[in-house]
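Is this the right way to post C-alpha cells for a design question? Let me know if I should format differently. Anyway, here goes:
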C-alpha cells in the first residue's frame, strides 16, 4: 500500500487498487508509521506524498515485494514440476504384470507427465519410499513396513513349479510342507517379497526355512532356470501361464499374499501419485 501511495499520490486510489476503503487504508498506514517510529506520508488536501523517510522505506519495500514475487514464482515452478513428474518404484512381479497397465492409463490421462519407474526387490522399494526418493512404491513382501503407509492394490498367490521332466511333474498327490521345505529351491535374493512370502508360509506350516539351490536376481531368471531343469521354484501365479512350467500342489501351505502400494507415513498422496493409486485400486467392472 505504501508503494502504491508513492506511485499514485493518493491513499484513496491506493485503497481502491487493493479493494479496501480509504479509512481502512489510512488506519493501516498509520499503524505502519507507529511501528517504524517514522512519518512516511505527508497528508494534504491535494493528496498524499511520501516523506524523505517514506521514499527510503519504499525503496526497501520494493525489494521485499520483488523478493516475494520471486518466491511465489519459484513455488509455482516447483508445484508445476511436481505435477508434471512422478517417481515410482515397484518390485519385480508388480513391475512385470500390473504396474505397466496402470502407468499406461495414467499417461493417457496425462500426456505431458514424465514418469520414472525403478524396478527392484520389495525391501529396496520400501527403502526408496521411506527416504522420499520415490513418490509411491509397490511391494509384494508380507511383513510390516515401519514408517510407511500401506494400501492393498491386488492379491496374488504363489505356486510351486517344476519343468516337465521333473519327478514332481508326475505326482498324483500334493506335496507335503516337509517335502517342500527339505528340497533345495531356485529362489530370489534376500529382500525379495516372493522369498519373504515363501519363508513366512513355511514357518506358518511349522517347517522351513527355505533351502536355496540357486539365488537369482529377477523373476525371469528364476523362471528360466526352472524351465531349464535346474530345480523347483515357488513363483507368482501371474508368471505361470504358457511358460513351459508345471504347477505342483502343496498340502496345508497358504501361499496367498497382498500386493501393496507404499508411501511415507503421515504424508497424503496428491497429484499423479494419487491418480496412480486410484488406478491401481480400481477393480475391473
Amino acid at each position: 500500500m505504501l508503494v502504491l501511495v508513492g506511485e499514485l499520490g493518493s491513499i484513496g486510489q491506493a485503497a481502491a487498487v487493493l479493494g479496501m476503503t480509504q479509512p481502512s487504508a489510512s488506519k493501516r498506514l498509520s499503524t505502519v508509521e507507529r511501528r517504524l517510529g517514522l512519518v512516511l506520508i505527508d497528508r494534504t488536501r491535494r493528496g498524499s506524498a511520501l516523506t524523505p523517510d517514506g521514499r527510503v522505506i519504499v525503496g526497501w519495500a520494493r525489494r521485499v515485494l520483488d523478493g516475494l514475487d520471486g518466491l511465489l514464482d519459484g513455488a509455482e515452478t516447483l508445484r508445476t514440476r511436481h505435477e508434471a513428474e512422478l517417481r515410482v518404484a515397484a518390485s519385480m512381479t508388480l513391475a512385470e504384470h500390473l504396474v505397466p497397465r496402470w502407468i499406461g492409463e495414467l499417461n493417457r490421462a496425462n500426456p505431458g507427465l514424465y514418469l520414472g519407474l525403478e524396478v527392484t526387490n520389495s525391501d529396496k522399494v520400501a527403502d526408496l519410499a521411506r527416504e522420499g526418493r520415490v513418490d509411491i512404491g509397490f511391494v509384494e513382501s508380507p511383513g510390516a513396513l515401519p514408517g510407511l503407509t500401506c494400501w492393498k492394490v491386488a492379491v496374488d498367490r504363489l505356486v510351486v513349479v517344476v519343468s516337465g521332466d521333473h519327478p514332481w511333474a508326475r505326482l498324483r498327490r500334493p506335496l507335503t510342507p516337509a517335502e517342500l521345505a527339505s528340497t533345495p529351491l531356485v529362489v530370489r535374493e534376500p529382500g525379495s517379497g516372493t522369498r519373504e512370502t515363501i519363508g513366512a508360509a513355511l514357518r506358518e506350516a511349522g517347517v522351513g526355512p527355505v533351502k536355496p539351490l540357486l539365488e537369482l536376481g529377477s523373476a525371469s531368471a528364476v523362471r528360466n532356470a526352472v524351465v531349464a531343469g535346474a530345480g523347483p521354484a515357488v513363483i507368482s501365479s501371474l508368471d505361470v501361464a504358457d511358460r513351459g512350467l508345471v504347477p505342483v500342489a502343496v498340502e496345508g501351505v497358504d501361499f496367498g499374499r497382498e500386493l501393496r502400494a507404499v508411501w511415507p507415513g503421515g504424508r497424503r498422496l496428491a497429484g499423479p501419485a494419487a491418480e496412480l493409486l486410484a488406478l491401481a485400486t480400481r477393480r475391473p467392472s
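Format looks fine. Someone answered above. Worth noting: The chain has a mean pLDDT of 90. The two ends are 58 Å apart (CA to CA).
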